[in-house]
Amino acid sequence: MQSITDQFFNLTIMAKTLPLMLSGLWMTAQLCAAVILLGLVGGLLVALANISPRAWLRIPSIVFTDIFRALPPLVLLIFIYSGLPFAGVEISPFAAVALAFLLNNSSYYAEVYRAGILSVGKGQWEAARSTGLTKAQTLSSVVLPQAIRNVLPDLLSNTVEVVKLTSLASVVSLSELLYNANMARSITYNASPLVLAALIYLVILWPVVRLVSRFQRKLAA
């Protein structure tokens, strides 16, 4: 029992490696901010194109969502980071991770948005238009607020997945939380830094998971 504690829950090693963990957490936070904010905006634009009556907008958006939902994010990340240099395009680890996850998550956000918009009845559109609102005003002031409320749990769930997805950035040596934890493990020959990283992820994500469950129960009621 003592050997397990020393190998996985060594408080001395955890305390010594905590600054490195916090440095990795800061990088993870920056990556999440970039991917989530841009993904929410990009996903909305793709969703609006997806429901457009114009084929030149609708068809490319459908192809985009199908391709980037089908491609594994790790494959996409390695292709962008290791494959593009063969075409003369050099890209930093942070930019490669941000771009790969942005493409992947924009496609998922787009499908969530689209489902939310389609969940708003046509009567809402017609009622808003009858008051003199333009189509754009109806969409922004009447339809989108209801659509986002209807799919808020799904948006939050997808955001949780984005945070967990950032751990894949370690494969391109980006110094995020998991990469730093693994570096600390290799230096200390002890698994406690990995346990500390897992605990940090748990502290950050568990409240969000509970919030998603609460929203889902409210919508079900």
Automatic annotation (TrEMBL):
Residues 25-213 form the ABC transmembrane type-1 domain. The chain crosses the membrane at residues 24-49, 70-103, 187-209. It is found in: Cell inner membrane; Cell membrane. GO terms for cellular component: ATP-binding cassette (ABC) transporter complex. It holds the Pfam family BPD_transp_1. It is a multi-pass membrane protein. InterPro entries: AA_ABC_transptr_permease_3TM (IPR010065), ArtM/GltK/GlnP/TcyL/YhdX-like (IPR043429), MetI-like (IPR000515), MetI-like_sf (IPR035906). GO terms for molecular function: transmembrane transporter activity. Keywords: Amino-acid transport, Cell membrane, Membrane, Transmembrane, Transmembrane helix, Transport. The keyword ATP-binding does not apply. The keyword S-adenosyl-L-methionine does not apply. GO terms for biological process: amino acid transport. It comes from the Bacteria. Part of the binding-protein-dependent transport system for glutamine; probably responsible for the translocation of the substrate across the membrane. Belongs to the binding-protein-dependent transport system permease family. HisMQ subfamily. This is Polar amino acid ABC transporter permease. It comes from Pseudorhizobium pelagicum.
